[in-house]
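Fold this sequence, please.
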Amino acid sequence: MDAQKVLKFLKLDNIFDHLSGYIEDRVAILKLELQEEAASFGAKILLLGIMFMLGLAGLLFLSIAMAIFLNIILNHSFGGFLIVGGFYLVLTVIAYSLKDNESIKNSLYKTIGQSKEKEN
């Protein structure tokens, strides 16, 4: 007996066509889902970048305003800028000294993990 006749007798001759169509449809759905996730991720990254830049600009202008205000109070032409710059230098040294702190790393990992769980 021929294999084609057996498949036709058992009405399985079209199953391979349906199965390949099903697989192609699943691949197409997966591609669309990946494109959607990539677009969502890209939009989040873009929004975070814009928020970062706006926050940085705000911090810059507030720092300049604070330095000018301190210049007026101190009646000095650059003392306020030195104070504000020194403040940021102290913050930088503190952040650098805490970079290897395990408790801070663990709390950051937990926070990131919780934010990922909220997204799902």
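The chain has a mean pLDDT of 86. The chain has four helices and no strands.
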